Amino acid sequence: MLQTFSSPISSLLDARAEGHSLPAGLYTREDVFEADLEVFFRRHWICIGLECDVPEPGDATVVDIGKTSLILLRDDDGGIRVMHNVCRHRGARLLDPGKTIVSKLVCPYHTWTYELSGELSYAPHMGKSFDKECRSLKPVIFKSVGGLVYVCLSNDPPEDIERLVGVMAERLAPYDIANAKVAYESDVIEQGNWKLTIENNRECYHCSANHPELCVSFVDLDFGFDPDALSPEDRAQAEEHFSLYEERTRRWEADGYPSAAVEQLVDCTTNFRTQRLIISGAGESQTPDATAASAKLLGTMSRKDLGDMHLWGHNSWNHFMGDHAVVSIVIPLSADKTLVRTKWLVHKDAVEGVDYELEKLTNVWIATTEQDAELVARSHAGVEDPAYVPGPYSPFSETNLDKFASWYIDRMRAHGY
């Protein structure tokens, strides 16, 4: 039974002050969490995985979102399918969570059997009059965004996903993410609300103090600073850096690699931002020394100097580099627990121990995700404290948090809260 509360969710939405973090109840209350699942994880587009999670016909993986269980699979014709993991007989789960290989989908309860297309092919003891045609597995609406699989669990999916699809199709084409290989995968459960996980990812105000591994390749100036706090020497360095950005972006785009920032963060339904970022140091990849982790570059890439094509949405963040990619997917588990699933991708033919070493490939983002998990837990513990009062965002380093909070409020209200 859901806990009851003295004030409706709408009063919490009304209480949010522009430029400030959210009221505590929007992070901690169980009724808000259930509303978040309904609004942001059922009625909006969410990333659940990758085409290359299921590289061969019969490969399948199960992803659970709240009480909804989804099967992502590759069918006999090599196509991608997403279906509800619910038998059309009496509702039993067909597959257990995780990855598997199947020739058909067989319900373990009463052996109703489905083709990889979802079509029911065998239902014993149902009589001659039984019509199998209307008992196929329920399909899920999905889009491939450059090889990333986005689904919408609503029958009325937001149409503005098409801008994301169009922008990223061109940007991700050289990386051939659909045909990459998942070299490693990690699940980390953060002890905090999913919005704190997303907020933490959307700013690097905290990076220099908490992410020494990441800061080898990240340029801290990219994530905001107070110009009045800079010395004349540092101000000159900042001006030089942004001049370099303009020049580097111009050259990248002249060479056929779209790079400029594209964002759809407010006054929209589908929330995303993408930009090609400069990599610091050796400039090749997000590794301990900023050099490429894999000698075999992704897709048709022939250059290591194309920076970090980053993309984020409201339940994912991604970094695409010449040699490898890092894809992180956020799945809420409860009001105070969030799963962060991270995948490291390499060229489909890259061989571990020959073309890349796993430790170098994964070191930076394993460390960064563990560090972020601690920060999110600290944040959640703080917002549960009666002393918590929403604080002001930095106008230099946390503008994207303000946009996220504003978008969150707007979308909740659009759905009647």
Automatic annotation (TrEMBL):
InterPro entries: Rieske_2Fe-2S, Rieske_2Fe-2S_sf, Ring_hydroxy_dOase_asu_C_dom, Rng_hydr_dOase-A. This is Aromatic ring-hydroxylating dioxygenase subunit alpha. Its cofactor is Fe cation. Keywords: 2Fe-2S, Dioxygenase, Iron, Iron-sulfur, Metal-binding, Oxidoreductase, Plasmid. CDD domains: RHO_alpha_C_GbcA-like (cd08884), Rieske_RO_Alpha_N (cd03469). Residues 45-151 form the Rieske domain. GO terms for molecular function: dioxygenase activity. Pfam families: Rieske, Ring_hydroxyl_A.
